[in-house]
Amino acid sequence: MIRSITQKKSDVEIDRLLDGLGRIFIIGCGTCTTLTHTGGLPEVKSMAESLRAKGKLVTGEMVLPVACDNMTGETLKEWSAKMDQADALLIMTCAFGVQTIARQSKKMVVPALDTLFIGKETAVGQFDEICTQCGTCILGETGGICPVTSCHKGLVNGPCGGTNNGKCEIDENKDCAWTLIYNRLKELGRLQSMRKLQGPRNHQSEPSPGKFILPRGDQ
Predict the structure, then answer these.
(1) Are 86 and 107 in contact (CB under 8 A)?
(2) How far is the first Cα of the chain from the last one, in angstroms, to the nearest whole number?
(3) Does residue 141 share a domain with residue 185?
């Protein structure tokens, strides 16, 4: 399951963002931030208790089933009375959820979390970045293993000179991405793919902000 991986902002930053805003409505998310324990029901309730202890009036708290879903607006309507009483909405979701809620509400929105990356749970409680959405995918030449995200240095030609017994020189507990790629390509009988020199990466293949429009015949 692919998730937006988030972490809670510092209390100092949250306090700064809420300065002058006395009445707060808190919103969490039942998917990504529930999984990472940054914006599920327990975290929302804990945040409410913390704000009350600081003298804030919490007009309400709720957890959206999916904060970035098209149905977000319909769910928010059910809580409109308590939201209308608030000076701001404190959002404990990923950045996608914050922006979705902002479009559905006329209230000031304040993010309580930082969105780190798109990742996948690879072990219990461990989430690894799997794609930076760089727009220059070379997975077809690396056996389906992404060196941009799996290599600490983001090398598209590897390995570097620091790999040691299949481990990364930056993190000795991490497998060297290019060793994994080599082993995978060897298993597939495709080692010749490693002999192709990849050109310099285009770090902005799509001008920001990105936009993708389907050709008319495909809509």
Answers:
(1) yes
(2) 27
(3) yes
**Distance in angstroms (rounded) separating the CA atoms of residues 200 and 204:** 12
Residues 112 and 191 in one domain: no
The answer to whether residue 219 is domain-embedded is no
Q: Which residues contact 30 (CB under 8 A, 6 or more apart)?
A: 40, 63, 64, 65, 66
Query: Distances from the Cα of 7 to the Cαs of 36, 46, 68, 115, 195, in angstroms?
Result: 8, 15, 17, 7, 40
Rounded distance, CA 82 to CA 148, Å? 45
Contact by Cβ (8 Å): 139, 123: no
pLDDT tens for residues 20-67?
999 999 999 999 999 999 999 999 999 999 999 999 999 999 999 999
pLDDT tens, residue by residue, 153-175: 999 998 999 999 999 999 999 99
Residue 27 resides in a domain: yes
